[in-house]
Design brief:
232 residues; alpha+beta; Alpha-Beta Plaits; 8-stranded antiparallel β-barrel; 28% helix; 31% strand; disordered N terminus
Length: 232
Amino acid sequence: MRRVLAAVVLMLAASLLALGQTAPELYHIHVVQAAPGKLTELIDAYRNGPAPAANEPQVTPIILRHREGSEWDLIVITPLGKQTTISAAPPPQAVQDYYQRLMPLSAWHSDTFATGPSWAEVQKALVPAKAEEAVYVVSDYRSTAGHRPQLRQVLDRNAQDTPGRGVLFAHAEGAPWNFLAVVRYDSWAAIDAPPPQRPGEQRPEPGLALREHMAVHHDTIVAYVSGGQPIR
C-alpha cells in the first residue's frame, strides 16, 4: 500500500508542478456515523484526541458536522504533511486508549488518504473567523472510466467560482471517490447564489459539464465544529 500511495503522490505532484502549482500534501479524510445517542460523546472524543506524531503538522484536525445529505455524522480532515508511514507495530498506549474510547461511540467509519494543497491554504479556506456563521458543502465525485483527468479539469474550473474558500482533495487510497470538494459559505442562502459571471462571458452550466465525465457524486451540507488551529 505504501508503494502505491507514494506512486500516486508522485504522479499528482508532477501534474501539479506542470501546471505551475505547488506540490501536494497528504491528508487523512475520516467520515463516521455515531452510534445511537452517542454523537455528543463522539464529537468530544475527536476534539480531545491524541496529539499528532512528531513528524506530522502540530495542528488540530478540522471537524465538520452533518446537517443535510449523506448518512455520516462527521467528517474529520487531518493534515499529514508531505509523507506518512503505515506500520504494523502497535501504536503508543495513548493512541490505543483513544481507539478503545471510540469503539462504542461509532456505528461505522471510513478512512481515506488524499492529496490536497498546502495546509496553509486548507486552513485559510476552511477555518472560519466566526464558527457560528460558517456552512459548508462537501461533495465527493467518481469519474466515468478513463475520465478522471477531464473531471479534475471541470472541478478546477468550477472552483474559480469560490476563490479562497474551497479545497479539492484527490483520492490516493481508501474510499471509492476520486475527488472530494469542500467549500465554505457565509450562510445557507449563499449556497444557492449564482456564481459570478463577467459581462459577455459564456460559460456552460457547471452541472452539465460535470455530467460528461462523472459517474457518481454526493453532496452534503455540514457545519463547522472545531479544529484547524496550532497545538500550543
